[in-house]
Design brief:
Chain lengths: ~325, ~400
């Protein structure tokens, strides 16, 4: 617990509340200096060997400031590399990544076609901040591979997204020959499930942190904004909406911490945690825009940054419809 | 510590395996059967030492830590035993009031009787004073050694079966409305006490009205000083919330199987819309369990904050509404035909009754709206409404 508090305190000091989406490259350097890229790396590999609680605490703080740096895909990439014990260049890459090079794991699906000659072509979507990446770690038809972005047959295309706090790219493979395999096709499923669960928790933490910040900002505004000769925070109809926002966040956060600490939680359990957190985040940001009134519709006010991040988070790593159905199906068969 | 908790868990589990009443739902379909089932089960739990884990150690089965109490309630929920509804006010509210604010004679007289099955009810709410409890009007006039009571109480849970009543009455009406309230212990068989059960929308008679016509209560039955009853009432009300909501949340988790049963019964196993709705509910209930756990853990660690209990209550009652609403919807037309109900339970599988009953949780014990005010004003520090608004 001491470690957690220290991490949280350090994060809040380095990235103060209210200063939203600080510059990506400076943030990244700062995070690397503070050792955040090594938080989940095993001690045997030169990392800090912390648990899921530690990375969750960091992602929650980075959600709070709508961080522009891609800590979540970076952490996932590092974990994939750490898990790839057969990979010849593992030690070298772990050192490079822990020191601040960036090799993200994509957060959306890929449409790839293998050719008989062993090459792969197609599009890998959902790569955050690919313009600062040395490589990506992607699931190809024959297993997970490290794909250097300067290799022949690899290019990146930015796809403009509505969420201005982050940038998304497609990685285009055109007759690319994978050479740096982290797993074979059989090992890919286990790695996918492990990383997918991690991604769900990280996104859930991002949602909870951001939703909390959105609520704080909304309440501050309601206390100073006056209508009909009173601060609007005085009106019971509006106070009750703030109370409901707080309740939804608190419920989703309770589930998040319970499952972060539950090593036996399944991938579906972790995905359900993210869905609940992302739905709470969306609820809070929709209320945020409404309760800010006209100013909430303007580009210069930060309301929309929260709303747009919430809507993107809902789509990453499987959307609510997909996971809710799976939760229902599994719960049904569990009672059979 | 953890070892002891696991040992306790095993003990409770083996007791429940041997003693938990089977098929109590079917045998709680008349009021009389319900009362008999409740009294039997309470007696067994008292005997086993699991009825009053929150009482001090000098009482049999008392002296348990909050962590141990949590284990006991988790197991009671897991085994799907009847909740101790009839003795709830006695073992929590009456106990807390007497233990914290009663004098030595009152404690010596009443606490052992509760363990023998004496049943208490609560005379707090009144017509016109529900969630605004301080607005009560029932009067207590001091005449020599007695208070003479006139007025009316409402929403008293199972007052029709009670032997004694925790009564709030007004001894003065000048000054702030919280002042001038006096806390009294009333014999339900005293002359002038009339009880009328309230027939509720789901067919149960869980609540009752109490009419008080020149009822005399000896002055020695007063708890605390005259006019200081509001403070005593706070002790009553703060006595149980965390454990109850934890128990109820876990009971609802267990009862998700009833919804799954409906999905199968009506052939919805591959209906993606139904599966999604069920999935949303499962996550909502899981989250409420996590929240109730967190709340109790915070209490155990002494870091409870103002407003926490309100958040748990609102989250639980909304989940209960969602649970019973989905059951009612999936049950279809079947649920529109009247079927026998189980008295006094929340998830009986009689979906219409359960759905209607779920409203009790968004209203009783401080309505959802009052809880929202607490969350907004006390926790989020939003401004309170000015006093003295007049229409």
């Amino acid at each position: 617990m001491i470690e957690l508090n220290e991490l949280t305190d350090a994060a809040q000091k380095a990235f103060p509340a209210g200063s939203l989406s600080p510059a990506r490259d400076e943030s990244w350097r700062l995070a690397a200096e503070m050792g955040w890229l090594m938080v989940r790396l095993p001690e045997a590999d030169g990392g800090l060997g912390f648990t899921r609680e530690a990375s969750t605490a960091l992602h929650l703080e980075m959600g709070r400031i709508l961080s522009a740096m891609p800590l979540i895909p970076a952490q996932l990439g590092l974990q994939a590399m750490a898990a790839s014990h057969d990979f010849a260049e593992r030690a070298e890459w772990l050192e490079r990544l822990a020191a601040g090079e960036y090799a993200p794991l994509p957060m959306l699906g890929a449409a790839l076609t293998p050719s008989p000659d062993g090459t792969v072509s197609g599009t890998i979507s959902g790569v955050f901040e690919a313009d600062m990446a040395a490589a990506i770690i992607a699931q190809l038809p024959n297993g997970y591979a490290l794909v250097p972005l300067d290799a022949p047959g690899v290019s990146i295309v930015e796809r403009a997204i509505w969420d201005p706090s982050r940038r998304l790219f497609d990685v285009i493979l055109d007759g690319y020959t994978p050479t740096l395999m982290l797993t074979d096709a059989a090992g890919a499923k286990a790695l996918h499930d492990q990383l997918s669960g991690e991604a769900q928790l990280a996104l859930a933490a991002d949602c909870i942190g951001a939703a909390g910040a959105a609520l704080d900002m909304t309440i501050e505004y309601m206390k100073v904004r006056r209508q009909f000769d009173r601060p609007i925070a005085l009106f019971q109809a509006l106070k009750h909406r703030a109370a409901d926002m707080k309740t939804k966040i608190t419920v989703a956060e309770a589930l998040l911490w319970k499952r972060v600490r539950d090593e036996s939680a399944s991938l579906t359990d972790l995905a359900a945690t993210k869905v609940l957190a992302a739905e709470a985040f969306r609820f809070v940001t929709e209320e945020m825009v409404q309760l800010h009134g006209g100013i909430g519709l303007t580009d210069e006010h930060p309301c929309h940054l929260f709303l747009k991040r919430a809507l993107l988070n809902l789509q990453l790593c499987g959307n609510a419809d997909l996971w809710n159905e799976r939760v229902g199906r599994e719960a049904l068969s569990a009672t059979g | 510590m953890t070892h002891d908790l696991e040992a306790l868990r095993r003990d409770v589990r083996s007791f429940l395996k041997a003693q938990a009443p089977a098929d109590w739902r079917a045998s709680s379909r008349t009021q009389d059967d319900f009362v008999r089932t409740q009294r039997d089960w309470f007696g067994k739990l008292v005997h086993a030492g699991y009825a009053i884990p929150h009482w001090p150690a000098e009482y049999p089965g008392g002296g348990r830590s909050l962590a141990e109490q949590k284990v006991i309630y988790e197991e009671l929920a897991r085994a799907d035993c009847p909740r101790l509804l009839l003795s709830f006010v006695s073992t929590y509210h009456a106990f807390a009031t007497l233990h914290e604010c009663g004098n030595a004679a009152q404690k010596a007289r009443y606490l052992p009787r509760i363990l023998e099955g004496e049943t208490w009810c609560q005379g707090f709410s009144e017509p016109g004073a529900g969630s605004d409890l301080a607005a009560i009007k029932t009067r207590a006039e001091r005449k020599g050694d007695v208070y003479v009571i006139n007025g009316q109480k409402v929403w008293s849970t199972m007052a029709q079966f009670a032997d004694k009543c925790l009564l709030l009455a007004r001894t003065a009406s000048d000054g702030p409305k919280q002042a001038g309230i006096t806390y009294l212990l009333m014999d339900m068989k005293a002359p002038g006490v009339a009880v009328r059960p309230i027939h509720q929308i789901q067919g149960d008679e869980e609540f009752a009205e109490i009419f008080l016509d020149n009822v005399e209560i000896p002055v020695c039955e007063r708890v605390g000083e005259e006019g200081m009853g509001w403070a005593v009432a706070q002790a009553t009300l703060a006595s149980e919330r965390g454990l109850t909501l934890m128990e109820l949340s876990y009971r609802m988790r267990g009862a998700l199987g009833r919804v799954a049963g409906l999905i199968r019964k009506h052939g919805h196993e591959d209906d993606r819309g139904v599966l999604r709705d069920f999935g949303v509910l499962v996550t909502q209930v899981d989250a409420v369990c996590a929240l109730a756990d967190q709340f109790l853990d915070n209490r155990i660690n002494g870091i409870e904050r103002i407003g926490d209990a309100s958040i748990v209550k609102n989250a639980y009652s909304r989940a209960l509404r969602a649970y019973s609403a989905l059951g009612l919807r999936l049950g279809g037309m079947d649920e529109q035909y009247v079927a026998p109900i189980t008295f006094g339970d929340l998830n009986t599988g009689n979906w219409m009754a359960d759905f209607m009953n779920s409203y009790a949780w968004t209203i009783a014990g401080g309505s959802e709206e009052v809880q929202r005010n607490i969350i907004a004003e006390r926790m989020l520090e939003m401004p309170r409404e000015p006093k003295g608004w007049v229409l």
